[in-house]
Amino acid sequence: MVLTAVAVAAALCASAAGQQCDFAPAAGALIQNDGCDNASGSDANGGCNFASNPFQDLGLLTAGSSLEISGTFGSFVPPDGIDYSRRDLDWFKLTTTEYGTITVALSAGDPVTGAEMANPLVIVGNGHGVANLCDVPTYGAYGNGCPTTFSLFVGPGTHLVILTTDFEDDDLTTPQRYGCQHYLARISLEPLGYAVCDGSTGNCATAHESGGCDWPECCERVCAVNPDCCAASWDTGCAALSETECSMFVYSCSIGPSQPTNDCALNAQHLGAEQTIAFDTSTATTDGFNGVADECAVDIGNDLWFVVEAPSAGQFDLTACDTTAATAIEVYSLGQESALSDPSMMRFSRIGCWSDNCGATGAQVTVIDLAPHDHLLIRIGGVINPATGLAAPVSGNLTGSFARVLFDTGAQKFILCNGRERNLGLSSGWLSALQPNRWLAQPFTLPPMSGGAGQWSLEAALVKGFQPSGCVNEMMGYVFWSRPAGNPPPNGGAALGPSNSYWLGSGSVPYPANFDDPDDSAVNASHLFALAAPLELNPGNYYFTVYAANSSGVPANFAWFTCCPGGVSLVDAGGAFAWRSASYPAPGFTRYALPTGYSAQQGDSPNAIYNCGFQLLGSSTVPEAVPCPGDFDKDGTRSANDLVILLAAWGTPDGDLDGDGTTSGRDITIMLALYDEPCQ
């Protein structure tokens, strides 16, 4: 799922200490284990940049102890380049068994001249509770000063420390600033200042008699302001401090007889991924948080709550246009959980907020990259007028629609060029008068239909690549072609347009904006666009091409990133290849192979090198099967296990059978009437 990461305020800070700068190798320091310029072609501690994830292990870091690392990092000129276009990152991992603050003090520069490196960069990741180190949320900062100090609060677990040079500055020409430099890093762990913060079970946003609370970092911050919150009791003043010091939310909500059943976030009503529900906020109260200007441009009043489950991997669209007054929608990620467990922490699961973005009133939202059974919490309400502090009642229809991922090549990856990493993009577009149609035909397969009947409606595409310098991309064009057995090129005769026997459909849309998918090797590589019109195709095998275009006759080029592991590889007696056209209709699509020296990374399929990155989304033209009411375990009948599930959902929407948004005695009555009946 693509989310906006909300970091705890001041999670990572940087400061310049006034000590003497010393970046010469220290006696007894650990030595970073590869050269800066990666002359061997492989980085011995390349971390998540490499498939095998070789982090240099620093071992156990205990409170009160420290360790030192001596090594080199910086920018270097690759063998096939002329400037400092490559950066060396040194990846380390270390383990802690307790809560505390990791501090990295970094000095870097030239040990011969004594010149300091400006803006060395430290990235620290908190691996507490995260199984895969490459999924650890990271926080980065850089600053001038020698040493420069960086800190991050962590819990027990294995954590990341990444050292390199600043990524943001484009001036790669100053040798003393860039180029391979020596560094000395001192890493230490400061333990909790208040022992009660490790083990307290009281909620930080709620007053309780014992000292401390159940979020160690917040507990530390609050007790640093008022030590009595740890030494005595966590009273209402401490709970209020948790809101200001930790961005927590003091939650309060109760439902009266005149209020809707989904007036509280803890009692959200189920909304199907493909469903329309009428809503009316005229008798609703407000229990969501407001007043955080950098999170939402408006405050929301008289809010109602809904929860949506993704039926598969895909994209969810939510629309509430043509409402009766100014409207805002806020979306939170619940992950695989079906309900909000701790409303005081809801701020940290927030995806975003949208208001009045589909006409004079109303709002619409798109959430991409959802995994099967991901749940979204939806808040909808009126926009509060700052002058009155009130929101007008809002009513209308809330409509959900879901586009499934029908084909996905997976993330784009580095390739190796003569043993060195590169992001490879294969050009697609109007490159010149001699190459007016430089296209790639990427194979894909649409899966069988559930039940064996119907077609897939292709509605959107996500492609991975970039616009090379000097090109003007105004439009993104696309073509779909049939792919017969044997994977022949999609030439299909001499005509370029629809008379081509392989040609199935085409279109052109405004060139889409780019955004970052952290799974890709290149940043901001993803481009999502809706097709100009849905295209209905049977399950089976096809080709897809996408290309850049403009109206000015200058080069337009979409460099389509390769080496995606989930693509369909084309292989013949000569090995892996791609169907590529320099112009059309003659010579049309011909066999294309890269020069020698190109290969996939170690551990990846060698045939994936021509698999350009894309995702196709759509829906079935056959209506989805209506769920069987009461068959919660989906075994085809209403049985004792379903009754147990219903009782466990008491007071929540998860066992609702009568449509009132909650599980109550009426739902038990319905379940007993259906008991032992098979689904039709």
Descriptive account of the structure:
The chain is mainly β and 680 residues long. The chain has five helices and 38 strands. Strands 14, 16, 19, 22, 25, 27, 30, 31, 33 and 38 form a ten-stranded antiparallel sheet that branches. Helix 1 (216-225) packs across helix 3 (236-246). The chain is globular, with a radius of gyration of 29 Å. Residues 1-19 and 169-176 have low confidence and may be disordered.
Keywords:
single chain; 680 residues; mainly beta; ten-stranded antiparallel β-sheet; seven-stranded mixed β-sheet
Per DSSP, the total helix count is 5
**Major sheet summary line:** 10 strands, antiparallel
Q: How much of the sequence is in beta strands?
A: 35-45%
N- to C-terminal distance: 34 Å
**What structural class do helix, strand and pairing data support?**
mainly beta
Mean pLDDT, nearest integer?
85
Radius of gyration: 29 Å
Approximate helicity band: under 10%
Shape: globular
